[in-house]
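cron nightly-structures :: item 1 of 1
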Amino acid sequence: MDLYEKYKEELGSSSAAMQMICAHFDMYYSDETLESAKKLGNSYCSSYFARKNLGQVSNKTYIDNIKETIANKVTSLISAEDKNVDEETVKFWGVGYTPEEYQTLNDEYSGWVVNSNNGETPGKSLETVFKQACKLLVDLQRARNGGNVKDISSLSKSYLDFLASAGLKPIQEENSNIAENNSLGALIEKWEETEPVPEPSKEFKDVDGIRHYIDVWFKGHLAKMFGIQNDSTLAYEEEINKYKVTSDDSDSS
């Protein structure tokens, strides 16, 4: 059929072309019938008409396709008008939650992303972990709202066990932060940035005289050798002067 070939060429798909044919002639479209027709040969269109009249869908029309599409959308999505839940949210979490529970799921998920992934979009595996943690929390809230003590205990344990296995348990995060932030290098950096060491009092600047010793006998001596004049040279000369021996001319006369 020329029309089928035209649609197939334009749409690049035999199933899409067949759907257009069915819509054109008000016939019911079925993926299963098309797959069955393909097995009969290359003339998919003629084979489809033959198979369609033999199956359970022989009395259906394309209107039934439209009705099914609408019904599936309503089933898979919560009514946006009544429930105020967008399509992407339902696709992400699946059906079966109340609007308030969807909000809880979104809030909890955002919290995990910010606190445990620095706000970065998680990879597939980490996304699955975060989603599972959020769903377990909602299940726990349902049990609490229903007053089911047995389920509360069981779900609480499941929730904490899951967080522990995923490395997301609060105490684990706290210990991880302590290990990271309280390493010697991190502490030194923190002290230097927030609590710099103040200048010591004069009496505590060089209690054992090591600094003075180095300034005079190492830096001062070295500077004197190379003819450099600086504070260390002056300190060296002052110290040397203390030990100089001077002659007394009065005694020699």
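cron nightly-structures :: done
The longest helix spans residues 124-146.
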